[in-house]
Amino acid sequence: MKKGHQHIHPGMARVGNLSVGKGHPVWLQSMTKTDTRDTDATIKQCIESFEKGAALMRISIPDRTALQHFTLIQKKIRQAGFQNPLAADIHYRADLAIEAARVAQKIRINPGNFVSASKRENIASSEHPADNYKELTYNELRKLTDVCNNNGTAIRIGVNAGSLPTHIIRKFGHTSTALVEATAEYLEILENLGFFNTVISIKSSRIRETVAACRAMQERMQVQGRLYPLHIGVTEAGNGISGRMKSAAGILELLHSGIGDTLRVSLSESPVNEILFGRELLKHAGMPRVHPNTNYNHKNKHFNIYSEAKTPDQLIADVVWQFISYKNETINDLTIKAPGISDQGIMKNVSDQLLQVSGIRIVETEFVGCPGCARTEMDMEGLCGEIKKRFSGLPGLKIAVMGCMVNGPGEMGDADYGLIASGKDSLILYKGQNPIGKYPDIKSALHHLQKEIID
Ligand code: SF4
Description:
With 455 residues, the chain is of the alpha/beta class.
């Protein structure tokens, strides 16, 4: 019997030494932000994350050199005594995915860009784009699933709102249904190829879209009796309090409904920060839903949240977790009391961000920020911090900060403005989906963005 066909039950996947789904714990994962060719730095991020509670780490494999380094990274991590599975993140390169599947314990592919851009363009303009797309994908995936089955490698179908196949967008638009249909189409192809060791993820930077799509996919799988583990998260959440608030709102709502088998908090910060906040979310998902001092005033529709949090991470997880129990009430305003947090700036920021993500009131600029990976040389955390400093306090405006030209333009979604890194320091400024300027450094890019927005 082929390795990949062993021990796989509906709703469960086997990723290296990890059983995912079907009654197993919700596992935390993160992704390295280093250049994969920097072996030592990548190993360091993996080991630090494992020590903080990551069950699995994902590493970008943009090219063959990175794959060679991935092999070395894995070897050294094992030598250091860590048996945690490693996932290889592949875009645009079916050939690379096949090679990586011989080494990694999981391959993450994106249906929107698994086959090369030129092949996708030819198909999009053909007479039967949907049928041709499925046929091409089937053929491209055949080899990969053979290698995965022979090596016991899992596949994650990582569907992202910013990179959906063209025929799906044409039929369903940019909707949660489109996300579900893209996932279902890929699952069907994998099943037709006899491959079942699959984890799925459906992500968008829009929280409601992410939650709606995950719910719909879970329901669909249950109705059809074809269950697969679901990896959950909100993509391009950015950093700091707003990034955590967006992630908490999406992830906790899903966990509240019993949805989610692995999770990643995508922050434009270190992987360790992602894991630490993920731990807070998991901790709260197992706690009583509402503090006894929390109450809702039916008369003026005011929600008073009481929290015993001692840190900002605890506070965010706690207020979101409590808010979810009242989300069906009409809430006009809210007040947060947390005697353990003395910094009033943090209290105001958390309160504003909760108002914003819950849709009660738009009080701030919305920032979208990719978490960064091996495909960027830009200091994403530093850039996000600069942007927030300069452009906070502009409610109704949405600014995206993306780390690379490979995925940035597609994944910045419906942002009013986008800054996309095109090199170590250089940035391209977008207005909507149109590039309007290229700048050699952050300072000049921010200056021109300021001129566009404010002057
Ligand atoms: S947009 Fe950001 S996270 Fe996505 S591939 Fe590019 S650098 Fe990596």
